[in-house]
């Protein structure tokens, strides 16, 4: 802070700020009077903060920051022996202090109003003051950032107002559920409860980012950026801004609010209500009513026990819709909202344990807001999901050990933490088997309870805001339970080796297959990709053109091939990348086995 | 070290533009240094570096023998600065401006400031926003001199003034510098202005020092050479452009010139034009 600068600011802006304070005081008394019979103790205060608060912040930013640049007096300040950082900090802190003073005075006056009709201790209203102060600082921080944008400051404010209107009118989000405004929600208006911690975190993030942005604009390039932005808009910029505002306004009036749809439900089929989980299964084909009922019960038991084991707060309903004509190994999850729950479409003859695995996977993935699927822990999510339905099924576990044992090729040391790459190589069935082998090894080492205790730390429901960045790394969480990824990988490899010996006879029955993928370029036909499999009469090829930013190929188009070779129905260009995959049904393992997964680049 | 300012291989870029491209210069204590250059040659950037407003990308800065990466706030207290534009707070009077600026300088002399306002004929109680351009420039000079700085930087301070005001201003600068022993670094593109006050001159072109020296020394080194026959430069003589040549003073008489060759001394303005023009390649200079 610089005292001479503070004195200068007071002298320069005193009259305007006094006038603003007088208008604000009038507005405050008017709003408190109007809101007196609205039922909330601090309704008038929140209305004042939402309307006059931004106005005061805007005026302060204009006077303290914008005026210095538009009047070019910033250049005079720069010739004086005072650092640019100190000038900016003085002005920012002065604005912040004045905003806090405004909030404090408004709160104190509102408290006096409340006390005319009821007894309210100051201590009971301190929380309201905290929210009021946090809101004031956040608004000031944004106003300072907008101010540093100079001639674009009106656009910055307009963008925020339009975004808020769109969120309310189109997305149907209530005003007091919007970020930052959440600080002044119903609990604060009634002085009965504070907002959730995440509301303060959101406001803090906005305030810090805005302050940092303003500082960058003020300081980077020796302050040249702020000076340039302070210049008046050109005629072209004014026209563009006007057209943009009219266009956004017009579009927003034509948009209809998203209709509220009831959550997904099935009206017929087998239903089962577990302790936490409601399950519905729609039978079809070979999945008759009895089987559907059994599946519903098994899913409910799996989910309830998993919810208890991981201490999950979300209890989504589960629906399984059997549909004839689907491949028995293909299962699809409908992309619906969280309220709809987990909705799966499967073949009637799909392996039921696989359906239960997908439910367990979806339950944990949803509860962790998909963070469970990050590469550094995805193997344990897949392992948990594949292990869970088999936790009391010795024969089932041995079946999956057989599938895992079929992976004979050496694995890289980081195959557990580079799970996307591992999954792409081995396909769904065998990568699930691999994950199962890892998880079952972990359970055998630690015991089921200790393992699930460790998983509880790993798959906890994350904070749905910036705090998620500070979560503990999976390796550290596992280390607390005495588990090391490298050690686990090597123990699982040894266990798979043992399983290979146990199942040597079955594995010997598997046919020896060889798969290749080649491409050629001819002038008349362009680039052709040919897949060849020797030793099998039919196979399946999957393929996908990879965009520059594609990492996980996701669901891929499928080509069923009768015979030994086929040309993929794809016409890539030079420098394109294509993922080509070949799978065959393995009768011994009773699941599709991926023979090859190759990323091709056509140079 | 007797240098008030020493810049070595100074480089500053604004994006892709090289504002200073290896500028080197030295200004002795107590001298009035004329820093000549065309618009955009790098004069203002040099002064902004000396004021710490802009940081240098490379090179070294030495002020009063103290090397520094960037001029600090503490060093700025010993520098007086008058810029091209006087961006004072328009609502402040010279008296108020004095009180405001005084707070930043421990060496501020209020009596001296009042005396300067009187001497420079600046009304102390009139808002600076309504002062004439010349008066505002004189106010800038008073503000710059009141802390009694050992170094005074002038960035084309008279560019907006009429000839009479310009002469008055320059006379004031020279007399005050002489009176106090202040080092003056005067940037300008007005050759006659610099010629009248500077003891030494540097000509900057495209961010580099083209030539530097006392005015009489430059006149001695740079000459116009006219010959009836095409000339090859003798040893130690280089062509600056067209018929302007550069050599050590003693060489002009010593070299063997063809018959009919005339060698004429040049005024500073011609020397400036020869070094500052970019439509012909420069020879190895300075």
Please characterize this protein's 3D structure.
The complex is a heterodimer of chains A (603) and B (286). Helix content of chain A is 54%, strand content 13%. Chain A has helices spanning 3-34, 43-70, 73-79, 84-115, 122-148, 153-169, 186-190, 197-219, 224-229, 235-254, 289-310, 352-367, 378-387, 394-405, 419-446, 448-458, 474-480, 485-502, 504-508, and strands at residues 270-273, 278-282, 318-322, 331-333, 342-346, 514-522, 526-534, 538-546, 558-562, 565-567, 577-586, 591-601. Chain A has 4 domains: 3-254, no CATH class; 261-367, Neutral Protease, domain 2, CATH 1.10.390.10; 386-509, no CATH class; 514-601, Interleukin-17 receptor A/B, fibronectin-III-like domain 2 (Immunoglobulin-like). In chain A, the strands form 3 sheets. Chain A has a 5-stranded mixed sheet, covered by helices on one side. A 4-stranded antiparallel sheet of chain A has the order 9-8-11-12, covered by helices on one side. In chain A, strands 6-7-10 form a 3-stranded antiparallel sheet, with no helix packed on it. With 603 residues, chain A is an alpha+beta fold. In chain A, helix 5 crosses helix 6 and helix 16 runs antiparallel to helix 17. In chain A, strand 2, helix 11 and strand 3 form a beta-alpha-beta unit. Chain B has 286 residues and is an alpha/beta fold. Chain B folds into 2 domains: 27-56 and 71-210, Rossmann fold (3-Layer(aba) Sandwich), CATH 3.40.50.300; 214-276. Chain B has 10 helices and 14 strands. In chain B, strands 6-7-8-3-9-10 form a 6-stranded mixed sheet, with helices on both faces. In chain B, strands 2-1-4-5 form a 4-stranded antiparallel sheet, with helices on one face. In chain B, a hairpin with a 2-residue loop joins strand 1 (3-14) and strand 2 (17-28). The two termini of chain B are 22 Å apart. In chain B, 43% of the residues are buried. The model of chain B is unreliable at 282-286 (pLDDT under 50). The chains are: A alpha+beta (603), B alpha/beta (286). At the A-B interface, helix 1 and helix 3 of A face helix 2 of B.
């Amino acid at each position: 802070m610089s005292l001479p600068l503070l004195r200068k600011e007071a002298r320069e802006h005193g009259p305007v700020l006094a006038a603003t304070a007088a208008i604000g005081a009038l507005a405050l008394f008017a709003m408190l009077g109007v809101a007196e019979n609205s039922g909330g103790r601090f309704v008038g205060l929140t209305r004042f903060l939402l309307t006059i608060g931004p106005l005061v912040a805007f005026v302060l930013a204009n006077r303290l920051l914008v005026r210095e640049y538009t009047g070019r007096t910033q250049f005079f300040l720069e010739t004086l022996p005072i650092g640019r950082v100190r000038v900016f900090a003085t002005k920012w802190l002065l604005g912040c202090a004045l905003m806090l003073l405004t909030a404090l005075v408004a709160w104190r006056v509102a408290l006096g109003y409340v006390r005319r009709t009821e007894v309210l201790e100051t201590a009971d209203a301190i929380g309201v003051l905290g929210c009021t102060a946090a809101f004031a600082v956040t608004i000031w921080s944004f106003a300072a950032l907008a101010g540093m944008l100079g001639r674009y400051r009106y656009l910055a404010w307009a963008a925020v107002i339009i975004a808020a209107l769109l969120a309310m009118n189109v997305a149907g989000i209530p005003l007091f559920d919007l970020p930052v405004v959440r600080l002044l929600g119903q609990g604060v208006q009634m002085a009965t409860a504070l907002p959730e911690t995440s509301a303060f975190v959101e406001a803090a993030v906005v305030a810090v980012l805005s302050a940092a942005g303003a500082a960058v604009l003020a300081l980077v390039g020796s302050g040249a950026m702020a000076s340039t932005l302070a210049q008046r808009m050109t005629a072209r910029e004014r026209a563009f801004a006007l057209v943009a505002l009219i266009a956004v306004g017009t579009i927003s009036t034509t948009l209809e609010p998203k209709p509220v749809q009831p959550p997904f439900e099935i009206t017929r089929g087998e239903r089962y209500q577990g302790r936490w989980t409601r399950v519905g299964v729609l039978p079809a084909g070979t999945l008759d009513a009895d089987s559907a009922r059994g599946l519903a019960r098994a899913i409910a038991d799996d989910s309830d026990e998993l919810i208890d084991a991981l201490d999950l707060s979300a209890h989504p309903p589960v629906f399984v819709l059997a549909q004839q004509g689907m491949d028995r190994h293909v299962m699809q999850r409908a992309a619906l909202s969280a309220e709809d729950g987990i909705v799966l479409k499967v073949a009637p003859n799909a392996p039921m344990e696989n359906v239960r695995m997908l439910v367990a996977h979806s339950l944990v993935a949803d509860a962790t807001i998909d963070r469970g699927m990050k590469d550094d822990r995805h193997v344990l999510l897949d392992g948990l999901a594949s292990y869970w339905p088999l936790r009391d099924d010795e024969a089932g576990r041995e079946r999956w050990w057989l599938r895992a044992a079929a992976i004979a090729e050496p694995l890289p040391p980081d195959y557990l933490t580079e799970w996307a790459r591992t999954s792409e190589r081995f396909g769904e069935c065998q990568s699930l088997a691999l994950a199962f082998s890892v998880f079952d090894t972990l359970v055998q080492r630690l015991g089921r309870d200790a393992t699930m205790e460790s998983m509880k730390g790993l798959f906890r429901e994350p904070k749905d805001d910036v705090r998620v960045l500070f979560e503990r790394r999976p390796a550290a969480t596992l280390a607390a339970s005495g588990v090391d990824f490298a050690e686990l990988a090597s123990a699982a490899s040894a266990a798979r080796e043992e399983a290979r010996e146990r199942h040597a006879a079955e594995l010997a029955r598997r046919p020896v297959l060889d798969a290749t993928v080649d491409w050629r370029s001819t002038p008349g036909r362009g680039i052709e990709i040919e897949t060849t499999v020797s030793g099998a009469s039919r196979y399946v090829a999957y393929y996908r053109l990879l965009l520059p930013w594609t990492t996980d190929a996701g669901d891929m188009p499928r080509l069923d091939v009768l015979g030994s070779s086929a040309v993929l129905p794809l016409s890539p260009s030079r420098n394109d990348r294509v993922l080509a995959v070949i799978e065959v049904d393995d009768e011994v393992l009773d699941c599709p086995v991926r023979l090859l997964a190759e990323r091709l680049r056509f140079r | 070290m007797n240098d008030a300012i020493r810049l070595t291989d100074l480089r500053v870029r604004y994006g892709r533009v090289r504002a200073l491209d290896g500028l080197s210069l030295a200004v002795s204590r107590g001298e009035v240094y004329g820093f000549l250059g065309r618009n955009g040659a790098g004069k203002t950037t040099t002064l902004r570096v000396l004021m710490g407003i802009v940081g240098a990308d490379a090179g070294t800065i030495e002020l009063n023998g103290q090397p520094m990466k960037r001029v600090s706030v503490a060093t700025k207290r010993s520098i007086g600065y008058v810029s091209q534009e006087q961006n004072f707070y328009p609502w402040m009077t010279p008296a108020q401006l004095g009180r405001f600026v005084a707070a930043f300088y421990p060496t501020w002399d209020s009596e001296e400031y009042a005396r300067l306002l009187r001497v420079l004929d600046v009304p102390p109680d009139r808002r600076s926003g309504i002062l004439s351009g010349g008066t505002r420039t004189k106010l800038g000079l008073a503000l710059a001199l009141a802390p009694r700085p050992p170094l005074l930087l002038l960035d084309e301070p008279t560019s907006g003034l009429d000839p009479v005001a310009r002469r008055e201003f320059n006379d004031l600068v020279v007399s005050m510098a002489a009176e106090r022993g202040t080092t003056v670094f005067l940037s300008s593109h007005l050759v006659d202005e610099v010629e009248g006050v500077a003891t030494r001159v540097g000509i900057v072109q495209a961010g580099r020092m083209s030539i530097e020296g006392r005015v009489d020394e430059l006149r001695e080194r740079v000459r116009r050479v006219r010959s009836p026959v095409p000339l090859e430069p003798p040893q130690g003589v280089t062509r600056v452009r067209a018929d302007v040549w550069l050599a050590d003073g003693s060489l002009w008489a010593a070299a063997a010139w063809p018959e009919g060759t005339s060698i004429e001394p040049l005024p500073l303005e011609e020397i400036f034009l020869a070094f500052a023009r970019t439509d012909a390649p420069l020879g190895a200079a300075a």
